[in-house]
UniProtKB/TrEMBL annotation:
Source organism: Anabaenopsis circularis NIES-21
UniProt xrefs under CDD domains: terB_like
InterPro entries membership: TerB-like
Listed name of the protein: Co-chaperone DjlA N-terminal domain-containing protein
């Protein structure tokens, strides 16, 4: 379960996601600094070197932080929340690099695995899919 104590880890993951393609875009930089400021972590000694690009984050570090953040058995809600947070960063520059898409895809796969283990969510998702398919058919 993700708790308030994981806010720092979430900011680390966002910084790692910005670095995952090897470069932080100006829009991503602005987004990260706003998030860090809002979370009260802009001057945190652990976060600051990454936030101000003094030290690059390697993709393996980002993935390790994701694993640490979600734990061994993440809930569907935790996965979806992380996907939403990372998506906000990734789409801030209007481009999605291959590495960024790969990260989102892996998180989505993890969310789907958790969803499969939650029959109620699965049944609800199937109902939503049926409604969507009907809507698409009506539109055509």
């Amino acid at each position: 379960m993700v708790t308030d104590s994981n806010v720092k880890n979430l900011v680390k993951i966002l910084i790692g996601a910005a670095w995952i393609d090897g470069i932080i875009q100006p829009e991503e930089r602005q987004y990260l600094r706003e998030i860090a400021q809002a979370k009260g972590l802009a001057t945190d000694p652990e976060i600051k070197p990454w936030l101000y690009e003094l030290v690059p984050v390697q993709p393996k570090e980002c993935y390790a932080w994701v694993k640490e953040y979600l734990g061994d058995r993440p809930s569907l809600e935790d996965c979806e929340s992380l996907i939403e947070a990372i998506s906000g960063l990734i789409y801030s520059d209007g481009e999605v690099a291959t590495e960024e898409a790969r990260l989102l895809t892996q998180l989505q796969d993890l969310a789907e695995q958790e969803s499969a283990q939650q029959p109620v969510h699965n049944a609800l998702l199937k109902q939503i899919q049926k409604l969507y398919r009907r809507w698409v058919e009506v539109q055509n």
